[in-house]
Amino acid sequence: MHLPVFDSADVVVLGAGSAGCTAAIAAARAGADTLLVERYGFLGGASTMVLDSFYGFYIPGNDARRVVGGIPWEIVERLRRYGMVIERPSSYGAGQAVTYDPPTLQVVWEQTALEAGVRLRLHTFCLDVQKEGDRVTGIVVGGKSGMGLITGKVFVDTSGDADLCFRAGAPFQPAGEDGPAQSLTTTFRLGNVDEERALKVKRADLVQMMKEANLSGDYRLPREEGSVHRTPLRGVVATNMTRVAYVDGTDPVELTKAEVEGRRQAMEYVRFLRERIPGYEQAYLINFSTQIGIRETRRVYGDYRLTREDVLSARHFPDAIAQCGAPIEDHHPGSDTRWEYLPAGATYDIPLRSLIPQTVANVLTAGRCLSATHDAHASVRSMGQCMAMGQAAGTAAALALQVDNSVRGVSVPHLQQQLRSAGALFSGAG
């Protein structure tokens, strides 16, 4: 079937989540004609439609050492200028959280991308790819106006589900193959909360109250250690409480059921908070997440696969492009979450090779579809790291244009120098 060419660019970034936005901004700032393709009508992905907090910027512990800089930190500073950022301790000791207002972040992402020269194409789905040998030459996209082709020289897959890599035939591991896939979560926000009373309830007490509520038979709360936190808006709290397990996040039939179940659970938690927790008596539901939050689907097999041992031993790599101190945070099926922490104050590196999918020559990936085992992925998927990976992938994509569009031909020292000049933080010591 002959397809019209809708657009063409040096660098095509698929998926405008936190990784895709930073990838596109980085590529455009490096001089590449960059097109960012997104299925929704706004930028940010999970950062603007599911969550309201960045994790991964700081290591766990009391010293609050920041381990992510560059474009990700610039985004935080831009939010701060709107007065829409607070920093707060993580509910689980996973490092200082950066909590923001999601609608404001949508605008910040757009402003930053457009100022960099990124071209946007929203409301556009990737349906397939075109290849010549081991190179992707274009992505087949669809929208209300029909199907067409977007051609490019280098592609960055930040779709979250490795959609481009999957269509290109690159090897991947589906979630659930090496351990139960992480569960899904519908988040929600509540208004008219008496914060002074509500936030006096300590997390341990909230967990105990949830356990007691389940034992009473009056409630069905599948996750007994969910969290509630304050936001930049007075009287508004955000939650991370629901748990929908055993779902293939790439199957629309299963996802449909999960969306319905997530909202059902959310309403049950709203009822619990109103009836059992001081300060929530007059609270009202503001909104659910735009879609259910998906933690894990396809993970590509890259030139290197980040492992649990790499994470917990705080391993460093000569081709480091970002770093992480976040614990392994496995939202497995069940009422609790499995946590494993790095040595105090330690970080591990994310190598460039984990962003290079096998069998394709001109494709990079970033975000939660990187090359990692289930356990390592449960640490490295924090949004601070997704953004840092995105900046690295976008910069590498622009550099690849100088070496016949080959992502493996990029000079690692030159890439690292470019990233450090732009404020990125990592060790790079093998």
Description:
This protein is an alpha+beta fold. It folds into two domains: 5-179 and 296-421, 3-Layer(bba) Sandwich (FAD/NAD(P)-binding domain), CATH 3.50.50.60; 188-288. The protein is built from twelve helices and 20 strands. It has helices at 18-29, 46-49, 70-81, 102-116, 163-167, 195-198, 203-216, 252-276, 308-312, 374-380, 383-400, 412-421; strands spanning 5-14, 34-37, 53-54, 85-88, 97-100, 119-121, 125-132, 135-143, 146-157, 172-173, 188-191, 227-230, 237-240, 284-288, 299-300, 320-324, 328-330, 338-340, 348-351, 363-365. Strands 1, 2, 6, 7, 8, 9 and 20 form a seven-stranded mixed sheet that branches. Strands 12-13-11-14 form a four-stranded antiparallel sheet, with helices on one face. A three-stranded antiparallel sheet has the order 3-5-4. A hairpin with a 7-residue loop joins strand 17 and strand 18. Helix 1 packs parallel to helix 4 (102-116) and helix 1 packs parallel to helix 11 (383-400).
